[in-house]
Design brief:
The protein folds into 2 domains: about 50 residues, no CATH class; about 90 residues, 2-Layer Sandwich (Alpha-Beta Plaits), CATH 3.30.70.100. It has about 170 residues and is α+β, with helices and mostly antiparallel strands. It contains 6 helices and 6 strands, in the order βααβαβαββααβ. Helices cover about 30% and strands about 20% of the residues. β4 and β5 form a beta hairpin. It is globular, with a radius of gyration of 17 Å. The two termini are about 25 Å apart. The strands form 2 sheets. Strands 4-5-3-6 form a 4-stranded antiparallel β-sheet. A two-stranded antiparallel ribbon has the order 1-2. Pfam families: ABM (PF03992). It comes from Stephanodiscus triporus. This is ABM domain-containing protein.
């Protein structure tokens, strides 16, 4: 996904505007409108964040995916999920992607997925790493996954959600 830089050298409205469904649909349907801008466009979420203020309001969609795996498959599930989380965290529409495990029942996990806009969840589900993860963990499930959608309230700014510059995801 491309984010467009303005003539002043800053990215305007990274998460709120250029990631919006409208811009994505226009760019897809009418690529000629964006042909001249690719020279000043940035594709990297990191580049976009470099031009964004940490105080920018975050209108994010948070999805908690509750997972119970079969006993004995916890390590294999965690390994596959960490690989998926690292790759997912690099997607332009994802602010963060956390993997957490229940302390008193290690067969239970929660995937905390924070999306920057309403189209990012569908885009995530089309990525190679997600499809590979889904296939890898399918037989490990003790029961079907359950996803619940939330709206962020606090922190209210992108600085409270996105990974800090220089943070290694490996």
């Amino acid at each position: 996904m491309w984010r467009l830089a303005s003539s002043r050298g800053v990215v305007r409205g990274c998460a709120a505007y250029y990631d919006s469904a409208h811009i994505i649909s226009v760019a897809t349907a009418e690529p000629s409108k964006f042909a001249k801008t690719k020279a000043i466009a940035v594709k990297s979420r990191i580049m976009c964040r470099a031009f964004s203020s940490p105080g920018t309001i975050a209108n994010y969609q948070c999805v908690h995916v509750f997972v119970t795996v079969k006993p004995g498959s916890e390590g294999e599930f965690l390994s596959a999920s960490l690989a998926n989380a690292r790759a997912s965290s690099r997607e332009p529409g994802i602010a963060r992607f956390d993997v957490i495990q229940q302390v008193d029942d290690p067969t239970k996990f929660v995937l905390v997925e924070v999306y920057k806009n309403d189209v990012a969840p569908a885009a995530h589900k089309e990525t190679d790493h997600y499809l590979a993860w889904r296939a890898a963990v399918e037989e490990m499930m003790a029961e079907p996954r359950k996803a619940i959608k939330y709206k962020n309230l606090f922190p209210a700014t992108v600085g409270g959600w996105e990974y800090a510059d220089g943070v290694s995801l490996d």
